[in-house]
Amino acid sequence: xxxxxxxxxxxxxxxxxxxxxxxxxxxxxxxxxxxxxxxxxxxxxxxxxxxxxxxxxxxxxxxxxxxxxxxxxxxxxxxxxxxxxxxxxxxxxxxxxxxxxxxxxxxxxxxxxxxxxxxxxxxxxxxxxxxxxxxxxxxxxxxxxxxxxxxxxxxxxxxxxxxxxxxxxxxxxxxxxxxxxxxxxxxxxxxxxxxxxxxxxxxxxxxxxxxxxxxxxxxxxxxxxxxxxxxxxxxxxxxxxxxxxxxxxx
Amino acid sequence: xxxxxxxxxxxxxxxxxxxxxxxxxxxxxxxxxxxxxxxxxxxxxxxxxxxxxxxxxxxxxxxxxxxxxxxxxxxxxxxxxxxxxxxxxxxxxxxxxxxxxxxxxxxxxxxxxxxxxxxxxxxxxxxxxxxxxxxxxxxxxxxxxxxxxxxxxxxxxxxxxxxxxxxxxxxxxxxxxxxxxxxxxxxxxxxxxxxxxxxxxxxxxxxxxxxxxxxxxxxxxxxxxxxxxxxxxxxx
Lengths: 250, 236
Ligand SMILES: Nc1ncnc2c1ncn2[C@@H]1O[C@H](COP(=O)(O)OP(=O)(O)OP(=O)(O)O)[C@@H](O)[C@H]1O
Ligand SMILES: [Mg+2]
What we know:
The complex is a heterodimer of chains A (250) and B (236). Chain A is α/β, with parallel strands linked by helices. Chain A has helices spanning 40-47, 72-79, 97-108, 113-126, 142-155, 172-187, 199-205, 223-228, 233-242, and strands spanning 2-11, 14-24, 29-33, 55-60, 63-66, 82-85, 160-164, 192-195, 208-213, 216-221. Helix content of chain A is 38%, strand content 24%. In chain A, the strands form 2 sheets. Chain A has a 6-stranded mixed β-sheet, with helices on both faces. A 4-stranded antiparallel β-sheet of chain A has the order 2-1-4-5, covered by helices on one side. Chain B has 236 residues and is mainly α. Chain B has a domain at 20-181: Orthogonal Bundle (MetI-like fold), CATH 1.10.3720. The longest helix of chain B has 31 residues, at 142-172. The relative contact order of chain B is 0.16.
């Protein structure tokens, strides 16, 4: 289980997260929605400690970290609990698809090369890239790169995978292939937190939806509940604005 | 006076002996230069207190003064320092026992370090921040991320600059003749004065430098092909 409590983060005078509390159960898929600038990316980055929160407590599984007092070792331990799928993919440019997936297994998890290779090939086949093992990122389409990114995150078998708008940098015709991979791994019971603007997808895949605005969680609940009967006015406004544009529906 | 074509060949053959010395000075200074330069560039990039300021001062002083000045300062300054230190500590060491080429190694490494730090810095700037974040996100430590992800890409991005620097240091190594190291240029002077045929001897030296430079260009083209295979960068 993942629990965030009282996560605060400011950039200079700009308070971006004003005390976030969130619980995610094992195997749950949580979608985070909210207008641009509401702090969604910052929240994900805080969980992975790419951004250091000013205060708050992050606990993932049996590991707990107080953002005000910790050492480098704790950060390192926390990062091992989660994996991130980036909006801009961020594949290692000098490594092939296979090497990208193997890297964490070999270097971080100290798995033998032969075993890492075998597991990585299986993962790449799972995301439909069995034929692209030796391609460099520059030789892959955006959708393919993002699927490698997902395989790289899956390889580490983390407690939670964090997705930051995994499809928003993609051409519309490539969005589907990435979403279907995410849908598939959601069904396997992997815990995920997904920031997305794909409303239909969120409604279909998520067990829990969180609406953020202005650095706080305004409302959260079951997808059906939140999408059909939003309680808060800000949520209603946001959904009204965004729904007609949602190109994806189930 | 008339051009003695056959003497160009004679001189050329004699100069071949001095190539290893020139290559040694070039290789040592560029290698050590890159070690120093990488350390300085990292200290500056990650704003390590004290080290980054010291690094910046080092770079501006060295780049602000000629290479031959570094050589002369080391050549005259080091022995004074070492002898004084040896005396104070009671060692029987005398600076006169240091081979001349050591001064060239030392001073040119210091010169190369300042230029290399800028080469490395521009290489680091060419690596997207997302690469470092991706490395952290899969649980790498800082040193792992640096060694496995950032530096290899920075290195690939710097290859053209590295080859430039190698060529610069190859040519610059000729300054070692001022402290009586017999590299290609000094050897050419010796051959020239003993036979009183300056133009021919220096022409032979020029041909050798040119040949070595072409060798470096070839190697760097190969290295670019090998290390930048992943990138489709550039405008071509
Ligand atoms: N490194 C940074 N330095 C300064 N300000 C930042 C930084 N990162 C984010 N911010 C600010 O924090 C606020 C929240 O940004 P964040 O990226 O978390 O929003 P978001 O909800 O992900 O938006 P979007 O939907 O556009 O991706 C913004 O006002 C942004 O300008
Ligand atoms: Mg964002």
